[in-house]
Write a sequence for this structure.
């Protein structure tokens, strides 16, 4: 005989879906210069250093940050992905 799952009580409402997590942590932001796909990078996943285009300072390994690329790049989505840049989270949020 099969056992019931104890993870969610019978009849309880389903938890709301975390859409950002379901899409791999990426979201689309619309700015004055077009649509950007933005993905958050956790401290554990940040293993290399990058130069932030917002402040021209290094993003050291182990620092949480964001990666952004044009969603509507002139030469297509693949070209936009190849031109992605790593930003400090605060620099990205201050960007106009």
């Amino acid at each position: 005989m099969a056992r019931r799952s104890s993870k969610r009580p019978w009849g309880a409402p389903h938890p709301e879906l975390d859409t950002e997590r379901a899409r791999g942590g990426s979201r689309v932001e619309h700015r004055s210069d077009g649509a950007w796909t933005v993905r958050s990078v956790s401290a554990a996943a940040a293993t290399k250093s990058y130069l932030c285009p917002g402040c021209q300072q290094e993003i050291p390994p182990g620092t949480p940050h964001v990666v952004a690329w044009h969603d509507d790049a002139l030469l297509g989505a693949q070209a936009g992905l190849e031109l992605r840049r790593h930003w400090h989270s605060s620099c990205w949020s201050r960007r106009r």
In short: Residues 24-94 form one domain. The longest strand covers residues 34-41. Residues 8 and 85 are 41 Å apart (CA to CA). The chain has a mean pLDDT of 83.
